[in-house]
Amino acid sequence: MNSNLSNQIRRLRFEHDQMTQQELADKAGVTRQTIIAIESGKYAPSLPLAFKLAHTFGVSIEDVFQYDNEQS
Amino acid sequence: MNKFQRESWITLLLVVPIWAICGQLPILLIYVEGPKFLHLFSFACATMLGGLSWLLILFFNSKQKRKAKIEFDERDKSILIRSTLAGYVVLWIYFIAVCIYVWLTAPPDRSISVNVMPIVIVEGIAVFIFIQSFTTLIQYGRGGGNSEQ
Known about the structure:
By secondary structure, chain A is mainly α. Chain A has five helices and two strands, in the order E-H-H-H-H-H-E. Chain A is globular, with a radius of gyration of 11 Å. The relative contact order of chain A is 0.25. The radius of gyration of chain B is 19 Å and the shape is flat. Chain B starts with a helix and ends in an 8-residue tail after the last helix.
């Protein structure tokens, strides 16, 4: 579990016409299980996948993922 | 549950027991009663049956109703690499442990039966696929394939 890595995927999905996890997974080229794991903070995606998710939402990578230095 | 989790469950619950039983029984028969044609023949048949138990995975996969667009991604790859590595490490530990055990329990003339080797190999394969499947399921359960150490 990455306690110092948080993400806004759930919020961004709902802001994008309540996009389902499966739709996001298909757009990012991963499985739904991976989206679930990322959303719940159990899996830290690779940099290319993080960029792909950000591009899917049309935002920058910092808008999707936040890294808290103080917790490390 | 994705394809690889399902495969791991099938391997853990069906393939490993079938392989271990099919592979072991004839070898134990040979070990106890000595090599006879019938035992060698049954060993060949049982090993084939054990080997064909992998077809169960194809059978259960064909029963899946809806095929997902993407069935394998970076997380699955990461999990697969880790579980294979875990299986490989445990396999070596198993071989070393078996060698030490055989060395310690060998009779005074230091000779061992030729039947020991097939038993060790068949069990080694069972150990490898068991550990690989088990660690795969553990990693999926824990979110799996976390790239951040």
